[in-house]
């Protein structure tokens, strides 16, 4: 493990959901795993009037999110809680941060922190710039004696324009090298392994291009609906919530050229080049033919009634926000010319799964007449769950003749000694930022390149009469119309929870309560 400086993590928005649900549990696990430096404290801050003990009770002792696996978990929690402090900011975030600075300096001296501070904005993005400005006003962004880093949460902007404004706003007060834009998919071990699969094996990289790859298919499916985040989601939709960030990050790693080293800037330079090569769709015909959006309607799934999106709390009953998005696109560069990418993301699908399927071209000359597309080679990279990699290839069916059927070659993370102990994304990302490693964080130009691709789609969906919102019954693989998108390439691979299971094994018992016509 890399060495780590003594430091303080200052969380803005510490009274909120993310702090309790993700950040503190990640820090607790890092504490249990002895990953935190000896001199380390967390200072939570927000407008809520809490004492140190109130904060500790809220996020540690009374939290349902800490994993209680240790025998002496009470002692472990008490030891961890000693590192947590809280400072009430008063009525708002646009205020003089001098009292906050005094508390930071008091803890800095007491715990010998050496002025190394990580600021975490777990806040609505609309106030990021204000908070950055107020930190800078009391010199808390200034490096020299100790370093200063800033982690910002998603969503990073609402459009290309707002993302640019946010970048400019933050860069007035913090240098780009100090800013860490979190994308929790980059914290997933399996996403990082994409780099290793591609660039540490001689068997894949020579084939990873238009000469051998027929198309690339990426599915991100969730079985849940919007839950209690309807208010946020209804203003966001699947394209902003998942596609612009997490899926564009995955696409950039699948498509990038080999970096010259594992230096963060080298990797991010290549990712941004891939994102800048995305063919922007700006004519109505292409947008109509290459994009599909949908919204789930109510259904009875395995005997239980599931609400339609428009009945969810916080959602406009006439909402046209998409809970399903499927996009076909091209990457205009030497490697990917004419190779279509099909990417979809959705809520209320039959199962929770994220996977990348590399569909290789059929052999140039078909010697065996019974070989069809189904026996073409596929490399399936499973991001979650049942994490692993599966290669489908043709083998001879024993017996007379040369009949070909599919066989699997597979690898599962659970087979590795470390495989059942994979770090949670937030643990990994916090640890990296604490060590000053920005490889798994998105750079300003990456975020803007992804928005440049997504913006015209959003504009088309919002403004054009031809942009229909298709209904789909909760529990199915999206609108039927989505099959038209991939037509000519076979079908979407509608995967099961288990990587090796054939898609047809995993069908839910659904009675459609609602309607597919919105
Ligand atoms: N929760 C999650 O699972 C995820 C969250 N995120 C992102 O993380 C960030 C924090 O999310 P989350 O904790 O869920 O958000 P919350 O809505 O719980 O807000 C966090 C804190 O910000 C303060 N706050 C909320 N609204 C305002 C406002 N209008 N003006 C000023 N302060 C406000 C509140 O603190 P107080 O009133 O005490 O000052 C609140 O406790 C957001 O950017 C979100 O998009 C990203 C991925 C997942
Ligand atoms: O960022 C988000 O991600 C989650 C899905 O994350 P996963 O790690 O469970 O795949 C999604 O539910 C949420 O809507 C989105 O904001």
Automatic annotation (TrEMBL):
User: Which residues are the active-site ones?
Assistant: 246 (proton acceptor)
> What are the UniProt keywords, alphabetically?
Carbohydrate metabolism, Glucose metabolism, NADP, Oxidoreductase
Name any GO cellular component annotation. Answer: cytosol
Chain ranges passing through the membrane: none
- Top-level division of the source organism's lineage: Bacteria
Q: Which Pfam families match?
A: G6PD_C (PF02781), G6PD_N (PF00479)
The annotated pathway is:
Carbohydrate degradation; pentose phosphate pathway; D-ribulose 5-phosphate from D-glucose 6-phosphate (oxidative stage): step 1/3
- What this protein is called in its record is Glucose-6-phosphate 1-dehydrogenase
The organism encoding this protein is Neotamlana sedimentorum
